[in-house]
Amino acid sequence: MAKWNDEEKLQYISIHLQDDAYRWWTQTSTTIKSWSLFTEAVIKAFGSTRVQELAFEQLKWYKQTVNQSITQYYDKIIELCKKVDPAMADSLKLKYLMAGVKESLKFHIALYDPQTIETFLSYARKLEDTLSFTKTDYIIHQYNESQDVHTFQQSLSPIATPEGQHEHNEYKNVQYSQQELLDTKGENNSRYKNSFYSSQSRNSTPNKSSRICYTCGTPGHYSRDCTRHHFE
User: Fold this and answer.
1) Where are the alpha helices (DSSP H) in 101-161?
2) With contact defined as beta carbons under 8 Å apart, do 70 and 121 qualify?
3) Burial class (CB in 10 A: 0-12, 13-18, 19+), 42
């Protein structure tokens, strides 16, 4: 329709209308002779009413979002109130403001009991700033506490610094040296024991070649064991 002239728009507009709009057009088309008259008539018949209906539905269920400031929320509610009824009383606007405000603010505002929409906005702003400051202060406090804990944990660990690492390595080297010394001593003791036992074994075993019989002069036995003198 963007390329159509006004006569073509008026001629084919009926194919774009549905339900109430189509019925309205069939009843009034004979009296509307130009496109400009059509736009005026359709706005008068549907424009304001439809806008009011949509605004009212939105106003009933509108809630302040998490990241929406109180000023943004206030402006949106007042805008919807004006669309629904340009002459709406402030007391009714105040009810809509209270109905959709954040739960974190609603309790405090209700205790304050503002009587005008201006008072509502003024107090809600101060309350929002206070809560925001408190939240920021809490986050900073939590961060500082976590940093303190981290620093304390580092102070308990000797490996956390180059000096601590050096001390740790020296301690390990001392341990290794002591262990090597113990191993060396154990090995020497073992060698000494083996040598001792071997010597004892050699000393305890008689050497047959050193036995000499003084009776017959024959090596290999002692004189007391010699049998030759028994036969002489």
Assistant:
1) 103-112, 117-156
2) yes
3) middle
- Say how far apart CA 29 and CA 25 lie, in whole Å: 5
Domain locations in the chain? 1-54, 62-130
Higher pLDDT, 148 or 94: 94
**Neighbour-count burial for 131-151, b at 16+ CB within 10 Å, e otherwise:** eeeeeeeeeeeeeeeeeeeee
**Paired tokens of 101:** 């405000």
Summarize pLDDT for 7-60 with one digit per residue, the tens. Answer: 888 887 888 888 778 888 888 888 888 888 888 888 777 766 777 888 899 999
Q: Which of 8-22, 66-80, 155-169 has the highest mean pLDDT?
A: 66-80
Residue 113, phi-psi category: left (phi > 0), alpha (psi -120 to 50), beta (remainder): left
Written as six digits, the tokens of 74 are 């206030």
Contact 39, 18 (CB under 8 A): no
Maximum Cα interatomic distance, the chain, rounded to a whole number of Å: 178
